[in-house]
Amino acid sequence: MKLEVRGIEEGQPIPEKFAFGVYSEEDHMSFGPNRNPEIVWEGAPEGTKSFAIIMFDPDVPSVADDVNQEGKTVSKDLERVDFFHWLLVDIPANISRIPEGEDSDGVIPKGKEPGPGPIGIRGVNNYTQFLAGNPDMNGTYAGYDGPCPPWNDEIIHHYHFEVHALDVDTLALEGEFDGNDVREAMAGHVLASARVTGTYTLNPDLR
């Protein structure tokens, strides 16, 4: 299979229009346009009955104590974990493109609803946990929400966009399912996959 994420080249920085947070000289970060990029795929094998899309960042600090704290840095030596940014499942087999801005166009405080979206079924991304302590922003975040790594992180973050061709019409996921639920449900059903990786940072020393 071949995947194209339009506007994002393999191994290159992700444009700000796709980001949840953009660099701000005054207060480190401000909200970005948060548009999902257009993605197009081809070459799905015979027997494909649906597609799933996963976008995740494997470079997120496992401990958030120093995240975005003045006078502190998030050490490059800290253990890192996956942070899911986009989960779409049960995409019909006759679909091979998601237009830019179709699943997200702007930051929506308190998030977007999980369940049926413009294309496929939206799962819950990890902004749900990350913003849980912010009274202005806490809520359930589903579908696409773009990069916003800690502005004091010593490493550049990587964002993997993946499309998976599946041998089932549906993963039978309901409610507020997350990235781990999607991975478990896909196990044994993936016929082919493709990935494009972009990078992003809000640390002015790394930009």
From TrEMBL:
UniProt xrefs under CDD domains: PEBP_bact_arch
Coiled-coil segments on the chain, per record: none
SUPFAM superfamilies in UniProt: PEBP-like
Pfam families according to UniProt: PBP
Protein name: Phospholipid-binding protein, PBP family
Organism: Marinobacter gudaonensis
